[in-house]
Design a protein that fits this description.
mainly alpha, 6 helices, signal, elongated, Cytochrome c domain-containing protein
Length: 123
Amino acid sequence: MKRLLSIGLLCSMVIYACTNTEAPEPAKPLTACDSADIRAARIYEIISTSCVNRSCHPGGGTPARADFSSLQKLENYITANPSFFATRVTSATADMPQIMGYQPLSAAVKDSIACWISKGMPH
């Protein structure tokens, strides 16, 4: 009887210990994007230099129907084509710009654009 009572008490303690306090959620590590203050004007400056001014996406029947001739058109394009834009512009394997003799965007620039998009494209 004592043994049965001891086992019952031990089981009760284990159950109570497991349900009484739960482990807190692990803290999400901060990233550079979390603290970055990236604004639309800076991103559009990069896009203008790399995509619009090189006559790739200036509007008016441009390649791939991507018209980046204004910030609003850039934002509309990203909103309508988020996966395609990420694949071609901000992913590790992105290949834009594709003009012969120009280097693709640097990893830091891609990260900045991706961060800006992930934050809702703040102005």
